[in-house]
Design a protein that fits this description.
By secondary structure, this protein is an alpha/beta fold. It contains 12 helices and 12 strands. Strand 6 and strand 7 form a beta hairpin.
Length: 332
């Protein structure tokens, strides 16, 4: 697989990463199987999808434990990214950016991941009660201690920005300006896909201008852009899509033209090329500093996603994708 090098930490990884969250959290709990997910991780590494993206809150904790089982055998093959800053309660999620907590959380993640060093340690969300510079300073100390190689920041949640009328990523860019004064940012992780392209407006150019890598979260639109979901089929109660405004039966039906357009482009590249691969290739085409991180928990999806790294969209393809209708059912 093509490799891409991102950020101040000079992190080299396969052009398509693996989002490990669906293996343990947020998607259809009845379909989560540890051994099957472990095989998917190994398949990703075999194919060159070396970035394994997890977080301590996924599970919570169980996702890191699962990834750790793979790292125990194949640490040299992987670039591991995990996150800190969010705590999961019974019915809520809260931020914790206190320096002492950050350091304890890092040690706990290292134990669960069965490794001596985390390649990319990301701040999941800033704590409104703690200056972000203090949290970032504690994370920088972990780099100096040799426990972490590079630091990243996850974008502020999209819903708040949409409700306020502000540009979607203004708050994230303000945070990035602040933490850059403390220690270099190597990567920013934010949603970017054909049906959520807002990062193209300001956040992606901001990163590119500063040599910061961009990890594209949800590049397959939470599965919608694969074309494998049936409108009205419904989701399990623990699946976050059950509460997502774009995943009502009405909105899924209304957004089908996006999938139809991706399939049309795919057909030009061969009968085995899929809508999902076109969606990932579109993300890859947004810049050499961009690495899509599609979530998957089965070998067949990992294999399909990895193959997108070899798909080169033409100028005609990119123009056609750009002209697809915007997604309906946002938070506006």
């Amino acid at each position: 697989m093509e490799r891409r090098t991102i950020g101040a930490g000079a992190l080299a990884m396969g052009a398509v990463g693996l989002g490990c969250m669906p293996m343990s959290w947020a998607y259809s709990g009845s379909r989560q199987r540890g051994d099957e997910s472990l095989r998917a991780v190994h398949r990703a590494l075999d194919l060159g999808s070396t970035l394994l993206d997890t977080a301590d809150m996924y599970g919570p904790f169980t996702n890191e434990l699962l990834v750790g089982r793979a790292l125990k055998e194949r640490r040299a093959d992987a670039l591991v990214s995990t996150k800190v800053g969010l705590l999961v309660g019974e019915q809520h999620v809260v931020a914790n950016g206190r320096p002492g907590y950050v350091k304890r959380a890092c040690d706990a993640s290292l134990r669960r991941l069965q490794t001596d060093v985390i390649d990319l340690y990301q701040l999941h969300r800033a704590d409104p009660e703690v200056p972000v510079e203090e949290t970032w300073g504690a994370m920088a100390e972990l780099v100096r201690a040799g426990k972490v190689r590079a630091l990243g920041l996850c974008a502020v949640g999209a819903r708040g920005g949409r409700r306020s009328g502000a540009r979607l990523h203004d708050a994230t860019i303000r945070q990035l300006h602040r933490v850059q004064q403390v220690f270099p940012v190597s990567a920013v992780e934010a949603e970017l896909s054909v049906w959520s392209p807002e990062a193209l407006d300001a956040l992606l150019p901001w990163c590119e201008a500063r040599g910061i890598g961009f990890l594209a979260a949800m590049p397959l639109g939470n599965g919608f852009l694969t074309g494998t979901l049936t409108p009205g089929e419904g989701f399990e109660p623990d699946d976050m899509r059950a509460r997502h405004p774009r995943f009502t039966a009405e909105m899924m039906a209304a957004n089908q033209p996006i999938v139809v357009g991706l399939r049309r482009v795919a057909r030009r590249h061969g009968e085995h090329v899929t809508a999902a691969q076109v969606a990932l290739a579109w993300v890859l085409a947004q810049g050499r500093h961009v690495v899509p991180v599609p979530g998957a928990k089965q070998e067949r999806w990992v294999t399909e996603n990895a193959a997108a790294a070899g798909l080169r969209l033409t100028a005609e393809d990119l123009s056609e994708v750009a002209e697809l209708p915007g997604a309906l059912g946002s938070w506006d």
